[in-house]
């Protein structure tokens, strides 16, 4: 590992620690969450250091093993009763501020492009605008959280827009990875996410950021949404009709 890659790894490691710490605080310091994330990070780091994810000629991409556990956990959070209770307790303010890390992540990706580890399409200069989410976060946090000067609908809209930027980056990362379905960056595939410590990007950082958007959107809508009168009136009429029958 040369000096530039070593520096990039250190910065990315610090960003990952910040993401995990902030999310841990957002879930009210849950010890169970801390234990699960620590175990998950240890498993990812161990398998990455062993070169497990660098084998790309398998029918089933090994990297997908990083995605399944976080996806199952998010499904549990939003679909199960205990999961919904936990989501209701999460700190929306911290889950808004957490997205500031997306600016340094994009800088890391640009350095990785210079080191020939990701294609140009993964960088902000190559058409990946996810850095805008990170740069806009302090402003959104100051106006919408600290000064309460932003309507909740605008907060939801910002979260939807930044969620779209994140999904765009996910698609670019998947389609540029050196698998059979690669269609982006054929001259320089995305090999960054196959090695330590950058496997934590798809395995930890991105799932947490994705979950943060979904939690904020859900909790804001749940707290402020008022059903239109015509819908509530229509429901009352239908209910009364069936009661008569």
Descriptive overview:
With 245 residues, the chain is an all-alpha fold. It has one domain. 67% of the residues lie in helices and 0% in strands. It contains 10 helices and no strands. The protein is globular, with a radius of gyration of 21 Å. The mean pLDDT is 89.
Feature tags:
245 residues, mainly alpha, 67% helix
Give a short synopsis of this structure.
Keywords: Membrane, Transmembrane, Transmembrane helix. The chain crosses the membrane at residues 6-23, 32-53, 59-79, 91-114, 156-181, 193-221. With 245 residues, the protein is an all-alpha fold.
Please outline the helices and strands:
Layout: H1 3-26, H2 31-49, H3 68-79, H4 81-89, H5 92-97, H6 102-114, H7 131-146, H8 152-176, H9 200-224, H10 229-244
Transmembrane segments: 6-23, 32-53, 59-79, 91-114, 156-181, 193-221
Keywords: Membrane, Transmembrane, Transmembrane helix
Extract low-pLDDT stretches.
Answer: none
Whole-number mean pLDDT: 89
Number of strands: 0
Order of helices and strands: HHHHHHHHHH
- Distance separating the two termini: 76 Å
